Every structure is written in structure tokens, then in C-alpha cells.
Amino acid sequence: MQLTNKAKAVNRSPLTLMERLYFPAILKGMGITFSHIFKKKVTINYPEVTRPFSPVFRGLHVLNRDAEGRENCTACGLCAVACPAEAITMDAAERLPGEEHLYREEKYAAKYEINMLRCIFCGLCEEACPKDAIYLSETFAPSNYSRKSFIYGKDNLVIPHPQNDPEGFARAKGLIQERKEKTKQQTA
Ligand code: SF4
Ligand code: SF4
User: Fold this and answer.
1) Is the peptide bond before 55 cis (omega within 30 degrees of 0)?
2) Which of 6, 24, 82, 115 is the most exposed place for a label (fewest CB within 10 A)?
3) Which residues form the pocket of ligand 1, taking CB atoms under 6 Å from any ligand atom?
4) Collapsed DSSP state (helix, strand, coil) of residue 114
């Protein structure tokens, strides 16, 4: 039974001499190709050239440090609970005496991982975090050949330490601040 009238009968009549030569079809195809040479390009030479990001773009995550370089995350797990893709896993640990310069809270994430192949970049982890610890940046996950390389651990996520890399730290903090302001404008 035919449900719509969209179906078209296929023309199965034998090819004409011109159709069998194929040249007219090839020339037509070349004509279409050449006509695009003079049109405005819709592509860009990435990565040398990049497009401006949309104000609502959400990219790779970063884990924040405070001004003294201590990790903000207290491994409360709220981001993991909020994550609809179950992309976040972590192991919590107790801060030991003498580690106050490393972790801001008494509990910290000894392991923190995000599976970027699962992540849908919704930003709910950022919204759920009560410690100003996780943000989404304007960076893509670089392509790779193995699934394992898309599991980002603390070595990929935590922003640079202010003593080891003051420039990197300042840059990351600036981007986090920018992100905060954009989020505020979106929700205003
Ligand atoms: S951005 Fe969304 S999907 Fe990705 S880790 Fe955060 S909550 Fe999960
Ligand atoms: S990133 Fe924020 S919400 Fe997630 S475990 Fe750390 S402190 Fe909690």
C-alpha cells in the first residue's frame, strides 16, 4: 500500500548514445565544480584559521585552583551525580597534615576522570559544583586513535600551578573569569 505520493517510478529505459558516452555528464559535473571556484568559501583553513566561538559554546573541562595554587575540588561527587552521561568518576581522599598547600578542603579528589567520549558538554557538572572547581573551556578535545586517550585525568584537567607556570595559571584564570561572566549574562 502506498502511504504517500512521494515515490517516483524509476526510469529503466535503455541509455541513449549521449548517456552512454558519459562526457556530457562529466562536463556538467566539472561545470558545477568550477562554478564554485569563484564563490565565497564556506570552509576555513583550520587550525591556522579559527572561527570565533559562540557565546554558549562549551568545550573541554578544567579543574580550578585557588590563588595559592590549591585544588578547589573537594570530591563531593555532585558533578558526577548531575552528569546525565555518567562521564565523571573520582576517588576521594583525606588531606594529610602538611598537604594544606595542595588541597583547599579537608577532602580532595585523588583521582578525577572525565570520559570525553561519553560527555555531551551540557555543562551540568559546572552548574552543580559548589566549590568553583570545574569549568568548561573553549577548547576542543583533540582527535586521537585510541578510546583510552579520551579519558581525561587530573593531569589533563587541573589548571597550571601559579608557581610552576605563572603565565599558564593567569591565562587559565582569565578564561575561567570570562566564562563566569558569559554564564552570568546568559542567565540574567
Ligand atoms: S558537561 Fe555534562 S555530560 Fe559532560 S561531564 Fe559535565 S555533566 Fe557530564
Ligand atoms: S568538581 Fe565540584 S562538584 Fe565535582 S566533586 Fe569537585 S567539588 Fe564536587
Assistant:
1) no
2) 6
3) 82-85, 87-88, 114, 119-125
4) strand
The domain spans of the chain are 61-187
Is 76 touching ligand 2 by the criterion CB < 6 Å? yes
Ligand 2 neighbourhood includes 88 CB (under 6 angstroms): no
Torsion (CA) 168, 94, 104, 137 in degrees, nearest 10: 40
Asked whether 128 lines ligand 2 (CB < 6 A), one says yes
Q: How far apart are CA 115 and CA 65, in angstroms?
A: 21
Q: Does domain 61-187 have CATH number 3.50.50.60?
A: no
Model confidence, pTM:
0.77
Handedness of CA 60, 66, 71, 74 (dihedral sign): negative
Q: Are 160 and 174 in contact (CB under 8 A)?
A: no
Q: Nearest-5° angle of CA 119, CA 59, CA 154?
A: 70
Q: Whose CA is nearest to atom 1 of ligand 1?
A: 121
